[in-house]
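Appendix B. Raw example, untouched.
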Amino acid sequence: MKKSLLKTLLGLCMVTLLTVFAGCSSGEKEAAEQTSGDAKTYKIGITQIADHPSLDNCRIGFIEGLKEEGFIEGENVIFDYKSAKGEIATANTIATSFVGNNYDLICAIATPSAQTAYTAAVEKKIPVVFSAVSDPIAAKLANSLEQPGKGATGTSDVIPVEQQLAMIRAFLPDAKKIGILYNTSEPNSATQIAMYEAAAGKYNFEIVKVGVATQADIPMATDNILGKVDCITNLTDNLVVSNLQTVLGKANAKKIPVFGSEEEQVKNGCLASQGIDYIKLGVQTGKIAARVLKGEDINNIPIETIQESQLVVNETVMNNLGLTLPESLKATAQLVK
């Protein structure tokens, strides 16, 4: 009788203990799931209008800037990168798909991609952080640089025009006319040309501009402008930069210098540039995106620019053109080959 009672009591104790342990296990699992649920993984769509080194560097810098702020690919952020390959219709499709997937943020690189992303995302209030947009106001992406106020912000790659003109004058003391090829559909290019035209007289230059609408226009437009100018200077015009080798091939054949608007163009065959570092620009953009993901109101985050410019000279091109590095540029020039 006593043994039976003891067995019964032991049985009840085991049941109670198992119930308690089962409860603990369930509670711990719920707690773990809750913790896991709190560690949000952000989905970011990156749309880029074309594949060329400047914009690629923006994208690399953007990811690095986010990483520096604790948003690390594969840990708490997933990137979906797509290039429009220079096609506006493709940029529209990319932006629509990002919005349809309800991404947490869209990074748009270059003006056409920024405009299409903004148009697609504005109604669903998905934040758009752009990079390499020279004139966000003209592109209708912001009310002002200080107070964007339209659900988009980012960085501008406005070029240091006066420093560029001073550099060209140092290389070519007798030059009179500077040629500029530009995409007639890109608002950034219109803004940059206006800046060149406003400053050219100060350095005794005349600006000669030739517009293009498509890639097919580039060869004839290059032949046209090379017959009228002493040199060419590039804008951050995506259509022209994407076809840089066509321009360089024709200019080199005539021994006419082509100046770039940033370092990568110089590495790819332009004589020199007094431009910005697109990796740094991308890092700044990534840090802005981090502020948005951390909860700041995108409407109140000012659009940023890079103030410092960087002089880069292609030594091989300089020698091929029979030029020498001006004395006034020696202290600051970074030589590449």
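End of appendix B.
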